[in-house]
């Protein structure tokens, strides 16, 4: 598919994340200070809430779908509406549109506009589905013989995370306190986390509900779109707490998502297969077609006031399980899935050291610190560091991107109980 | 505190769960088929939504608090409103009230009335905080040397569950399918669960939000009330999936709560201390006073069409950690807590075999089946079995109860993917 030309000229440059082929969904603070729904095009945001209010572009037979500045209501309307609305947006923004001047009043520059959570997270589930990541972490936590748990090749291992802690890109993240126990200590202490980390992930957003188990094909149909996702992780809290029931407070400080939800439709042409199965999957988890996407990903790290170093480059196609498989597995027990459920892919790591999606892996548990371009070294995140995830599917002369997924780590409070 | 006498005579009998001292909150289907908020008194329900609509009893300066038949909006108003409203209800229903005839039109019999979820569950967290239970399960899963994980005496171990699967008492529960791997098999199969179980728990409902870490005293102030909670568990699915990230689909089929939320205020006089600490707790988890409650609990099991056998009797005071401690721990990382968060205590087991809150423990993993009064034996739940939790704090001549927390297990679907 070639670049689709828009009358918004900044959308036609090869380096924008937001050509007409993309049209991702976000939420922003309007001039009047209200949350509005918007669509990114080049370096602008098209104000969808204002378009609906003025009757320029509305979902047929629906009112106030975008009134609250949240895409959840739109998601509930289902795939036919998603397609129809995207087609209408494409027409409005295409080069051939007759009245571009009529739309300029609905355009807001991205620069200087505050972004908001684009949807209401119902529940957040995080998976562990990149084989390189699972093998690396397993080796560190349990030794090379037990690196991959016995169930790993049979199901996408996941755990329920905390929806209340999901925040949009640009939100500062406060270093947490927690129980830490060093290997040589007999008892834990309550202290600020010393091993604060990122996890480079993709997030799939469930846009349609289910009651009973769904097939992988049905699960794929339920997915509305994808975001970049950084699951901030307190590795020292995690090591002490995670047995036997899994990570809990180590993952509950914050999870940052990109400001833009890329619709599944914009990613269709970038579909790729999951890798060959090392153990045949049970039938209910087999895929009817390619369910991963070729999305180039990178992580940048910038100490306070200094320039950024890219510390990892990988690709979403490195996953062993797709989001559709994860959603199918999630439903096997009859677990009701709801509009707004967010499924983190799990940390995405390639086979090489500089393709790993977490500092835990890059620095091998802190034993092999990295040196940034500024000359500083890092084992884990230090106060003031800004971490940025970027991702895009690369087309012929254009890219379908997510915008930056950014967070700066603030120092821990001196006394977290002081009011 | 003596029995508080009501003009509703059925509330003054010693065997009702709902004397005037209780006044628990529920939701029910009105004659017009709408969800209404109600308060249990004796064998009746006082229709709070209708009282508000008619201006007989309203929260001062608020409108439509009960309009949607859900107590979540009331919870957001905070402890002062909770107290004021409870006082007003107590006055309306007390023996001294001047116009009882005026209220009879707002009374609905409990018998024959369909109950609904009394609040919107924001997120569900389940803990593992009874020492007898953790020791029993740990012994079965990991051997007696590793029964209690090293962290267990330092923090209330918990994991995030699935809010979408929480249902109200009376909802049938469909036996799930899942991945099962028998110890002697090399690979798993996808099949109906063979080891379906209950977990006898109490649930604490968070009624006020928090942003940063909260103390145990602050956590206690945030709790709105308590329910009985049955966390249905698929033990065979759990055994295969739970390493390394904890239970997932094994706990996602359903969690049943009692129809009535007993306000914290109704339980005040039944407060008891947690047991002596076997390892001193870190300061942020120490309790400023008694945070458990003396609540007698029991589990009944009835095969289809047969009478019930009580298979376990225990008490909420058997917990090692209180809900206030669990909530405080939950907030340590800065995890935002929200109105409507539901915290399961974890299975409550006493030291004796007939005091255990799960069949897994009662039958020791199925190796020691129990015999019911009907002569049948059970290792785990069979299709058609009805499981009922009951609980009450026992006062002098009255009981403060929760109503029955009931679920009947339906057979697994022949083909869960057939539509």
Automatic annotation (TrEMBL), chains A, B:
Classification via Pfam families: FAA_hydrolase (PF01557), FAA_hydrolase_N (PF09298)
Any one Gene Ontology molecular-function term assigned to this protein's record: fumarylacetoacetase activity
Enzyme class: hydrolase
Keyword Ribonucleoprotein: no
Domain of life: Bacteria
Active site: 133
InterPro entries: Fumarylacetoacetase, Fumarylacetoacetase-like_C, Fumarylacetoacetase_C_sf, Fumarylacetoacetase_N, Fumarylacetoacetase_N_sf
EC number, as in UniProt: 3.7.1.2
Cofactor: Ca(2+); Mg(2+)
Domain Fumarylacetoacetase N-terminal, first and last residues per copy: 21-118
Amino-acid positions noted as binding Ca(2+) in the UniProt annotation, renumbered to this chain: 126, 199, 201, 231
Positions contributing to Mg(2+) binding: 231, 251, 255
Keywords: Calcium, Hydrolase, Magnesium, Metal-binding, Phenylalanine catabolism, Tyrosine catabolism
GO biological process, one term: L-phenylalanine catabolic process
Every Fumarylacetoacetase-like C-terminal domain range: 124-395
Pathway: Amino-acid degradation; L-phenylalanine degradation; acetoacetate and fumarate from L-phenylalanine: step 6/6
Annotated residues for binding of substrate: 128, 142, 238, 242, 347
Key word Cytoplasm present: no
Protein's name according to its UniProt entry: fumarylacetoacetase
Organism expressing this protein natively: Sagittula marina
